[in-house]
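Let's inspect a concrete specimen:
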Amino acid sequence: MTGGNQYVVAAYAVIWFLVLAYVVMLGARTARVGRQVEAITRMLDRRAAESDTPEGDDG
């Protein structure tokens, strides 16, 4: 393999590594946002359930 070809192969390897790292970071961010949405949904469901229960002082 000539010197020029080695640089091309190295450049492709670096680009592929950067693309892979970007995809992994996006996946981690998507998973984190999904967990946050689930937590907010649970919190809102719990708040709705608490507001639907009759309390002795309100009525």
